[in-house]
Here is the input.
Amino acid sequence: MPGVYVFKARRTSRQLLTIALLIGLVGSAYFVREAVTYQDTLSIGLAAIALLVTVVVWAIRAGASVTRLTVRQGQLEVVQQGGRYVFDLASQYTIFEVHGRSERRGWYVLFHRRDLAPFKVDKTMVDPQDFMRVLRFFRPQLVEQQR
Here is the structure.
């Protein structure tokens, strides 16, 4: 295991929002051109609705940040929407639970924190097989019980 291991970020939702934004921009351009050409109430209304939907998709995309997971010297660092969370994988005092199998739906890992709600890592953040491989490196006895 290298001193610093960076997990590949999952960007599926952001890519879908980018595609939706591009479709919205093309649709808005079409409806605005039609509204300028015909100058009737229906065309102007459709153009306004298309522009509004495009702005909403853009706002959602701007707020959707990618979660980044990195292991540095045995510590899992999670950067998510401006927050930074660190869990010591090498320490036996860090309690976490593996739910499900990494190949199946519903897989997630809960990291328990004192006086806070557990932090959940799931397949929307990281590749499950890659994450479990790293967990097996630091905690083989705990992960083997979950198989």
